[in-house]
Amino acid sequence: MRAALMYQAGDVRVEDVPDSRIKHPTDALVRITASCVCGSDLHPYHQMTAENGPARMGHELIGIVEDTGSEVSTLKKGDLVVSPFAVSDNVCEFCRESLQTSCSHHEANFWDGIVDEGGQAEAIRVPLADGTLVKLPVAPDSALIPSLLTLADVYGTGYHAAKLAGVKPGYSVTVIGDGAVGLLGVLSAKRLGAERIVLMGRHQDRTDLGREFGATDVVAERGEEGIAKVRELTGGHGTHAVLEAVGHMPAYEQAFGVVRPGGVISRVGVPQYEDAPIGFGSLFRHNIRLAGGPAPVRAYIDELMPAILDGTVNPGKVFDATTDLEGVPTGYRDMDERKSLKVLVRP
Amino acid sequence: MRAALMYQAGDVRVEDVPDSRIKHPTDALVRITASCVCGSDLHPYHQMTAENGPARMGHELIGIVEDTGSEVSTLKKGDLVVSPFAVSDNVCEFCRESLQTSCSHHEANFWDGIVDEGGQAEAIRVPLADGTLVKLPVAPDSALIPSLLTLADVYGTGYHAAKLAGVKPGYSVTVIGDGAVGLLGVLSAKRLGAERIVLMGRHQDRTDLGREFGATDVVAERGEEGIAKVRELTGGHGTHAVLEAVGHMPAYEQAFGVVRPGGVISRVGVPQYEDAPIGFGSLFRHNIRLAGGPAPVRAYIDELMPAILDGTVNPGKVFDATTDLEGVPTGYRDMDERKSLKVLVRP
């Protein structure tokens, strides 16, 4: 079968790989009908060394169940399913607490950590299929597929940021980053009742979509200038919540620059740093809280799907380009060059 | 009048200083009847340079109102009052949100930031007296004074740690530090319903008091060994909440070593560092949250006082020595050498 492989930074190829197949009785084999490239795929696209390649890529997918292991009980051949970016059993103590990204099952993993499988491919072996996969009540060619695909990662991740930030009616929120996660953080904050949503981003086509999703203000400036602008918009105090959807240090520095005393910085951009300021001069003095991590999107799918199915929200608008599998390398390049916001892949 | 002054690290003296007196119409003049030395006073006792001295010391006090400015409306001469370690107007938007340590009034400050006043003295000028001071319904010589004095800082601070950590019935909690704040963090966690409370501390007289306050386990080991011990006690996963009541980097490292996935590290020890690990390898991977800061103890006094008055709790047990004002320098030395846990001062 065909699949995307990253050889090293900047080098993505689509090649023949061994067919995915059932290995364990709890596996399902899924024929992928929709997948995509993630903003977080751009981190290795910038940094990966040749020794770490070639690596299978892609962690967001919708597909049709083609085969199931003998112990799979909730799925059958022909079901259309969505897979979160992390595999989990959905029954351990952490999964029961809605923290599926810390599932304690020995097969639990991020797709990015499962070496022989990936979502940017024709098919995939899904471990712990009963726990991981969620059935979709639509046809594979439904117009809702792009929005439903965001449940695999970016919508659930934006929602996680807003939930952990405790966004509620009347809150003011700053969203740092105008990528798909940031924009869906805006949508999530709006749905949770935020009164004021300041989107920090520099790409007007994206921030326009952010306004459509609920942003009340857009700040294009960055660094000290951007911080001053947000403070100016908020009576000098900053916002109750900051959703940090980038992962680089300057974004974190902006976050503690614009957060209100007693507020929360909620990080869902994968940090590209380990040490960062958290002492008296940054977080401690004004009781700023820090939250975030890999989103347990599995926990949010049931909650978020109805408003997609009834058309209330359309998070799939973050996809502004579609390609087949052979076009995946171009998709990476276009996203890296900011020509595309997020590329949908139809294998 | 007599007052304690710190000249530099290790050098505390009691000297004559100008009498405190009313300066603004919102001030009160308070004759101090009980004060104390704080664990956080030991930070300058270790680090202060001569250029920063001499500095007035002491931020926890009970006393009798001796005079009030013309605009003070809720207090009168003869009232016995307790002062939080921070002065606040108690009416601004942050105070109304119970974040008095971020009060936006221009006179709001920590006592440690008000240069000509201090609690280790015969008297004190209290700015924003109506907002800051809380009346005590006991006599100045009541046996409850030590416990009521903990409302000025250490009990409220331990309680803040437990509240921000979201401690609730069934929770497991690790408390790092067996100083007064750590021990009152134990008491607070117990009162909030924690099921298991692991106290990390090395001084048996203190950890014995910790057990009396509600600790179910004591871990004397530190660093990797201490982390392993706590993990062993908690099925390998760590505890839902960690109250960090020290402020040094090794305590923070212990904190993220013993916290459970999805858990909270709540810091009330004043950080003696600015940068610290918060990336994928420490907090992010398992959605560890970070909370804490200077406790708005003013917000907790009304809540915590009744159980002191009716004898349900006795946080004053953290005082294991009493001195007059002239004995303050010895009090610092004894606390620094761990001969005393916390020294009560009766001017």
From TrEMBL, chains A, B:
Q: Report keywords, A-Z.
A: Metal-binding, Oxidoreductase, Zinc
The UniProt record lists the Alcohol dehydrogenase-like N-terminal domain at 25-137
One MF term from GO for this chain?
oxidoreductase activity
- Which Pfam families does UniProt cross-reference here? ADH_N, ADH_zinc_N
Recorded hits in InterPro entries, A to Z, give: ADH-like_C, ADH-like_N, ADH_Zn_CS, GroES-like_sf, NAD(P)-bd_dom_sf
Domain of life (superkingdom): Bacteria
Q: Which PROSITE patterns match?
A: ADH_ZINC
Methyltransferase listed as a keyword: no
Q: Which cofactor does it need?
A: Zn(2+)
Q: Where is the Alcohol dehydrogenase-like C-terminal domain?
A: 180-292
The family this protein is said to belong to: Belongs to the zinc-containing alcohol dehydrogenase family.
Name of the protein in its database record: Threonine dehydrogenase
